[in-house]
Design brief:
Pfam family, one: SelR
GO molecular function: peptide-methionine (R)-S-oxide reductase activity
Strand order of the largest sheet: 3-4-8-7-6-5
Protein name: Peptide methionine sulfoxide reductase MsrB
Shape: globular
Helix content: 10-25%
Strand content: 25-35%
InterPro entries: Met_Sox_Rdtase_MsrB, Met_Sox_Rdtase_MsrB_dom, Mss4-like_sf
Distance between the termini: 24 Å
Largest sheet: 6 strands, antiparallel
Family: Belongs to the MsrB Met sulfoxide reductase family.
Length: 131
């Protein structure tokens, strides 16, 4: 996959301040505040920074966490996992495989068939209806 490498100035020009904070500084939006938490439309969720397809709405479910949750990425190579020891916790951070932007975290407490919960920030996603 081709990587998208931009300078911090280019990222700041391309993203809103909230997007920049979450996607480039690994921030988190408030629980239940994101526009895709309760969103139910059929389509594909793309990276808000580089437009890579990340998640299919067919794999979205209501985890009750306050963030959009998915059982798996749209493709095995769409999202990369990274050990995150910030905030006194050990978690697995999920990043976009193309631009290395922070998306959220993945937890081992999801429903079948994967048992995973990809807990994503709405601001890191861009939804596009299925054609």
């Amino acid at each position: 996959m081709d990587q998208l490498n931009l300078s911090e100035a280019e990222w700041k020009a391309r993203l809103t301040p909230e997007q920049y904070h979450v996607l480039r500084e690994a921030g988190t939006e408030r629980a239940f505040a994101g526009k895709y938490n309760d969103y139910k439309a059929d389509g594909i969720y793309h990276c808000a920074a580089c437009a890579l397809e990340l998640f299919d709405s067919a794999d979205k479910y209501d985890s009750g966490s306050g963030w959009p949750s998915f059982t798996q990425p749209i493709a095995p190579d769409a999202v990369t996992d990274h050990r995150d020891t910030s905030h006194g916790m050990v978690r697995i951070e999920s990043r976009c495989a193309r631009c290395d932007s922070h998306l959220g975290h993945v937890f081992p407490d999801g429903p079948p068939p994967t048992g995973l919960r990809y807990c994503m920030n709405s601001v890191s996603l861009d939804f596009r209806p299925r054609k």
